[in-house]
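Researcher: I'm preparing a figure for a lab meeting and need a structural model of a single chain. I don't have an experimental structure, so a prediction will have to do for now. The sequence is pasted below. Please return the structure as tokens so I can convert it later.
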Amino acid sequence: MSREITIAGVRISRPEKEMYPATDEAVAVTKADVAGYYADLAEAMLPHLRGRPISMQRFPDGIEGSSFYEKKVPGHFPDFVTRVEVDTADGAQQQVTIEDQRTLVYLADQACLTPHVWLATAEHLHQPDQLIIDLDPSVPGLAAVRRATTAVGELLDEIGLTSFVKTTGSRGYHVLVPLRPERDFDGVREFARSFAQVLIARAPDLLTLEARKNKRGERVLVDIQRNAYGQTAVPPYVLRARPGAPVATPIGWDEVSRVAPGGHTIRSIKRRLAQIDDPWAGIGRRRQTLTKAAERLRRLTD
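Model: Understood. Here is the structure written out token by token.
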């Protein structure tokens, strides 16, 4: 018989449901485990979630069952879950924002394993405060995607931008540049494209902007397409729907060569945070403008 438990003030239905099956390396992860994880990690996660519309990636029967993305707030969601109105191709709609621990846990009870966040906040929906470059390997192996990620960080440093890196919990790495919300998405994406073109010109055998896998060869995709209105990215410390419950993990630039994209899981991340300072702590205070960096980038192409 199913039972209910309460975590962070939220009743968890069917807490024993397996969301991640057991693997050779780890026991199964239940819905109670997921809810408890999000309750425990809320303090580290919330600075990267608050004020941002999210898309909920839901797995009613765990990662081995069917899944779906949900943007619009379902009618049954309680009043404590905050909303923001956004414009879509189908008109205005309400989307969830995660402002507190209780909402994180409630979404876990709704089988939302991974909340994906906008690159803009509700205050400036059309002016992003993040630029994200997604390094996606075309073939198995870590060497190329690690070189590509390091190259991104080095060029950003060369043009005077402070950047942060995280594992995606999947196959690659994300590089994030915190921005002042001044330019619109088109302006930020134009900068990202120019940046990628300079980067690729320096290492054409390693990098590409070609989205089609059959045309990439073994090159690493420098994906800039997340820099658009309504697009999303996985925020720090969320779980990914892959065996072993890997976690999108902020790392230091010196860790790219040591920490694999799925290197930390629901079982190891708390130990990591107990041992080291969060590499992304205070990231909101590092917002920058792109003006001078764009000028430096242009000079590199002259």
